[in-house]
Amino acid sequence: MRNLIFFLLAPMLVFAQIEGKVVKVKDGDTVVVLDQDKRTHTIRVADIDCPEYAQPYSKVAKKFTSDEIYFKEVMVISKGKDRYGRTIGFIRYGEGKDLSRELLKCGYAWHYKKYSKDKSLADIEVEAKERGLGLWQDTAPVPPWEWRRNH
């Protein structure tokens, strides 16, 4: 029975991965990946939210993402699509790095608790906040979802 389930689910597991090169960094949490078939995929980094363009630290978050993965090979593990048709996914690169975690560690993103219950990501955010890293240097940083609602 386990083998049957595996064979039924295996095609979905393969379908849920994208491998390719990052050819554009739109902002801190959105990139474009070109796969081996020359198709582009817009990827929204899973479980985090970086500051919006007009917010403090948005340029720093974008530069961090660019420095980490621009024109590098990545693997995207998809969680699905958002309402704009972008793939929501975890971006793995380098020696086992995960972009969601790296952005949180440096204080360039919030853990998006509305869509993620991952305690380890919440802990990383708390650590960056306690250390006053990145956007946590501000006395009252505004989460992007609140900023979007008010603008």
TrEMBL record:
Range of residues in the leader sequence: 1-16
Keyword flag Transport: no
Entry GO MF terms: 3' overhang single-stranded DNA endodeoxyribonuclease activity; nucleic acid binding
InterPro entries per the UniProt record, alphabetical: SNase_OB-fold_sf, Staphylococal_nuclease_OB-fold, Thermonucl_AS
Organism: Flagellimonas maritima
Enzyme Commission no: 3.1.31.1
Enzyme kind, highest EC tier: hydrolase
PANTHER family: EBNA2 BINDING PROTEIN P100, SERINE_THREONINE-PROTEIN KINASE 31
Domain TNase-like: 16-138
Name recorded for this polypeptide: Micrococcal nuclease
Gene3D superfamilies: 2.40.50.90
Hydrolase is among the record's keywords: yes
Pfam families linked: SNase (PF00565)
SMART domains: SNc
Keywords, ordered alphabetically: Endonuclease, Hydrolase, Nuclease, Signal
